[in-house]
Amino acid sequence: MEEKKKERALCPVSKKCGGCQLLDIPYKKQLDDKRKMLSGLLKDLCPVKGMLGMEDPYHYRNKVHAVFSRDRKGNPVSGVYQANSHIVVPVEKCLIEDEKADEIIGTIRGMLRSFKIKTYDEDTGYGLLRHVLVKRGFSTNEIMVVLVTASPIFPSKNNFVKALRQKHPEITTIIQNINGRGTSMVLGDRENVLYGKGYIEDVLCGRRFRVSSRSFYQVNPVQTEVLYKKAIKLAGLTGKETVIDAYCGIGTIGIIAAGSAGNVLGIELNKDAVRDAISNAKANGVKNIRFYCGDAGEFMEQMAADGEKADVVFLDPPRSGSTEKFINSVAKLGPARVVYISCGPETLARDLKWFKKAGYKAKEAWGVDMFPMVEHCECVVRLERGR
Ligand code: SAH
């Protein structure tokens, strides 16, 4: 009970924000609960061996998004949407977000008035600044700030950038992203680099990765290493295998695995991420990897139709999971092992059933807590061909 009160007192907006559903629960119990939940969902499908947690479960998010609006008095506010609404809950400090990112967002909010920058009003379509996104390279300390504006015209942008850099010399790149649409998507398609190289880099498992504003990159760098190391261990690579990294994002898993594989193929739908993946392979001197842009299911189907084979398949689909088409094509490629990284345990359970039908049995699952304080659960499963 004592701990309950204490945790709640740590965050004044936890109720309205709703992001940290588990804030009141001691961390150790959170891990136990997540493990139980996973075991329940995978009952009869796969034994859950453990739930790997964090030593310090706070301020782990290296990607922070703030929506900008104004309060009744017309003062700029920034924060998160209240659950199921478009009311903005003002957030100054967040227990799970990177503290430097929150500080930069606070600075930007404080600069708006003197630069006469109006926050965007969703109802009237009037105003300029819609969102700010900050991404920080955990190992490199590089910081990207993305200013999402409703129109390309950004009066006094050079002075704004200069002033922001003066206050935060640690920022390494600033991007203006233009999103004029009436949509809940944060980022639009057009971008101007206002300062720096237009992306950040980070180091994971000894490899250097380039991350652009729109590419997917895991948000908890400490646990990402734990997850990747586990995934690669479960793959049991010997240096000879043909490996597929499906839903590969910026190529992280494939590039890390390439050192202990014969050759790797990466497949990803988002073309910015594929561009990042290709440059990441080059920058790391990894020559035995190729990336393809397209739908993972179609790619696998084509490979199977061409009579190709694979020894190990990694798949790391979005929360909606994979598809029957993908899974049946995996079976045709005939890998001895499949390593499934999942951020949606319900769709994982569904997909493991499809895998079973296709001749692959799930042998062990490990939960990796990428999102302390949050209900969300990530896990990695080793599957083997045969029943
Ligand atoms: N393995 C990467 C990315 C995982 S996130 C990492 O660990 O960082 C899931 C990725 O799947 C995203 O990059 C998303 O763009 C991609 N994706 C979503 N649907 C896809 C599809 N149908 N085919 C291929 N990639 C897809």
Radius of gyration from the CA trace? Answer: 22 Å
User: Structural class given helices, strands, pairing?
Assistant: alpha/beta
The largest pleated sheet is described as: 8 strands, mixed
Identify every distinct bound molecule in the structure, by name, code or SMILES.
S-adenosyl-L-homocysteine
| Beginning-to-end CA distance, first to last residue | 48 Å
| Lateral arrangement of strands in the main beta sheet | 1-16-17-15-14-11-12-13
Percentage of residues in DSSP E strands: 25-35%
Query: How many extended strands?
Result: 17
Mean pLDDT: 94
Write the element-wise H/E pattern from the N-terminal end onward: HHHEEEEHEEHEEEEHEHEHEHEHEHEE
EC number: 2.1.1.190
Binding site for S-adenosyl-L-methionine: 218, 247, 268, 316
InterPro entries: MeTrfase_TrmA_AS (IPR030390), SAM-dependent_MTases_sf (IPR029063), U5_MeTrfase_fam (IPR010280)
Family: Belongs to the class I-like SAM-binding methyltransferase superfamily. RNA M5U methyltransferase family.
List the helices and strands and how they pair.
Blueprint: H1 2-10, H2 14-17, H3 27-41, E1 48-52, E2 63-70, E3 76-81, E4 88-90, H4 99-111, E5 129-136, E6 143-149, H5 157-167, E7 173-178, E8 190-195, E9 200-204, E10 207-211, H6 221-235, E11 242-246, H7 252-258, E12 263-268, H8 271-283, E13 289-293, H9 296-305, E14 312-315, H10 324-333, E15 337-342, H11 345-357, E16 360-368, E17 378-385
Parallel strand pairs: 1-16, 6-7, 11-12, 11-14, 12-13, 14-15
Antiparallel strand pairs: 2-3, 2-5, 3-4, 5-6, 7-8, 9-10, 15-17, 16-17
The chain binds S-adenosyl-L-homocysteine.
